[in-house]
Amino acid sequence: MSTATTTTGARGSDTPGSGARPRRSSSPLARYLLRRAGTSVLLLIGVTIVTFTLTNLVPGDPVSAALGEGASQNPATREAFIQARGLDQPFVIQYFLYMGNLFRGDLGTSLVTGRAVTTDLASAVPATVEIALAAIVVSLAVSIVLGTLAAYRRGLVTDQVVRVVTLIGLSVPTFWLALVSFYLFFLQLRIAPGSGRISPSITPPPRVTGFYTIDYLLNGDGVGFVDAAAHLALPVMVLSLVTIGLLTRFIRTSVLEVLASDYVRAARAKGLSGTHVVIDYVLRGASLPILTVVGVAFGALLSGTVLVESVFSWPGLGTYAYNSASNLDLPGIMGVGLVVGVIYLGINFAVDLLYGVLDPRVRLA
């Protein structure tokens, strides 16, 4: 009898309903990240296809743009250039040639600067990231305070003032705000430095990160750091004013939704302090939607600073994209398009990563 019972118990332990669960080889977070990484790789391939296709559909003669009007009229020179660049091959073959060069880190040679596109982008991208990163940090810090304050003071004077100010920030064109800021603070008041990343009398720092402010600090150059930070102030202010309007209104809406939740009312009923409720309950509950809009805003700052960089003569990605498009520099245009696509994919992957860390429910989706 005991033998039968033992046998039955052993069999019962193997049944699905016995409570024993099969052990999985990886955690839900790891599987979630693998899925997102695979999706990002597929999207990156799609970015290369779209970038290559649209760039080659641009009207104009890339051979004439590359060789100039004189050399392009020579049939032998023109034919040699076409064969060297593979322009006589079918479109699909040209794409695979482009991908082969891309895997080797070769984005071609810029027709404007005469340098490798990777070299130009290595200088332009950090300049843009520096002002975009500073702008998103300033915008987020101000927006969290204003948005939370407006939500807590809903319908009162404070809320109305914040909403009007943010509406003005969203309505003012960026290029107009940049021109007015440059004219007022530099030409009239003389309290801001001129254009560029540093003054002509200042030597650029030894390259470590590509961010002048950080590289000056790493080099122990306080004078250079102050000069670079002063040149950074106006572009960051212009970009921040526009971004603050977007983030503040979104944060206000998210905080209002969380304030109406049961767990926030329960926290208040427990007698917790207002600061404790705001930090540990309200902002934490509203963090996921806020994180999404911050990622979108940061991507927009990185890829949409053309006008601001033009006004302040900032040698960043926007200026490089404008010069490439103006001169029909196809390698430069494709390089910029690829970088912008990678930036958006990288930001979205980072947001997905933070989603999975902050909300366990997302890992099982």
UniProtKB/TrEMBL annotation:
Highest taxon, organism lineage: Bacteria
Keyword vocabulary terms for this entry: Cell membrane, Membrane, Transmembrane, Transmembrane helix, Transport
Family annotation (Gene3D superfamilies): MetI-like
A Pfam family hit: BPD_transp_1
PROSITE patterns membership: ABC_TM1 (PS50928)
GO biological process, one term: transmembrane transport
Disordered as annotated region, ranges: 1-26
Location(s) in or outside the cell: Cell membrane
CC per GO annotation: plasma membrane
Membrane topology category: Multi-pass membrane protein
Transmembrane segment boundaries: 33-54, 131-152, 164-186, 228-247, 290-312, 332-358
PANTHER family, per database record: DIPEPTIDE TRANSPORT SYSTEM PERMEASE PROTEIN DPPB-RELATED
Name of the protein in its database record: ABC transporter permease
Species per Swiss-Prot/TrEMBL record: Labedella endophytica
Lineage of the organism: Bacteria, Bacillati, Actinomycetota, Actinomycetes, Micrococcales
